[in-house]
Amino acid sequence: MPAPATRTAAFFDLDKTIIAKSSTLAFSKPFQAGGLISRGAVLRSAYAQFVYLVGGADHDQMEKMRAFMSQLCAGWDVATVREIVADTLHNVVDPLVYDEAVSLIEEHHLAGRDVVIVSTSGIEVVGPIGAMLGADRVVATRLEIVDGHYTGEIEYYAYGEEKAVAVRALAAETGYDLDRCFGYSDSITDVPMLDAVGHPHAVNPDKDLRRVAAERRWPVLVFDKPVALRRRVPLPGGRPALAALGLGGATALGGLAWAAARRRRP
């Protein structure tokens, strides 16, 4: 039986909503230092980051980024990826977190709401970041793993309409009253997720989401103050604790992560 709808939550996109850039691409240099990718791949990811920031995350750009990252990861050792993320998480993420987002997360927790991060980036990155931020649950993309290595196939893709499906499934599972829930995103591709809640907000919206927000009279928020997270939130000390978070710190719907649930995509 589904839980009675008495609880509430705030659903946050991650990239350009809580942090100032793509969380996955932000780790390209640490992955190079760890021997996973070449200098050329770092340059390509830097270019993808530039396009993402300047042009907004429309469908075509997200598909190109998805294909680039899934092909790039094929053959990577999963334990190595998690160790690199754990070792470099503070240095990579600290300067990128929006102060306004951290304050908003704190306000929702004080109001008794769960905080759920719903991101198209991979669970290996989103899980530890969510744990650092104190998120109660995480929905993220998941890559297929065979014998401890990524195959380059996508198991679950937390993107577009699938984000709304995940939000509704969580509501049925936990008893969230979606009419009383909040949603935050920067991208037109997240309109289905924002439509699923009673209090949608556009954060640093791309031009298409800004137009939709104006048409539907959604509040528009501007976050522009990146801050070192350690100044705002007590962080767990040491690599072992963060490595444990990378293995499964924040979960939702069985630990959603880097790709499409209903269909495999190369």
Task: Please provide a brief summary of the model.
The chain is an alpha/beta fold and 266 residues long. The protein contains ten helices and nine strands.
What is the C-alpha radius of gyration, as a whole number of Å?
A: 17 Å
Strands of the widest sheet, in order across it, are 5-4-3-1-6-7-8
Q: Helix tally?
A: 10
Q: Termini, distance in Å?
A: 37 Å
As a percent range, the share of strand residues is 15-25%
**Helix vs. strand class:** alpha/beta
Average pLDDT figure: 77
What is the number of E strands? 9
Query: How would a crystallographer describe the biggest sheet?
Result: 7 strands, mixed
Q: What are the low-pLDDT stretches, counting only 5+ consecutive residues below 50?
A: 50-55, 235-266
**Net shape:** globular
Helix fraction bin? 40-55%
What series of H and E elements makes up the topology? EHHHHEHEHEEHEHEHEEH
Describe what you observe in this structure:
The chain has 266 residues and is of the alpha/beta class. Helix content is 44%, strand content 17%. It is built from 10 helices and 9 strands. The protein has a 7-stranded mixed β-sheet with strand order 5-4-3-1-6-7-8. It has a two-stranded antiparallel sheet with strand order 2-9. Helix 2 (39-55) runs antiparallel to helix 3, helix 4 (78-93) packs across helix 6 (123-133) and helix 4 (78-93) packs across helix 10 (239-248). Residues 50-55 and 235-266 have low confidence and may be disordered.
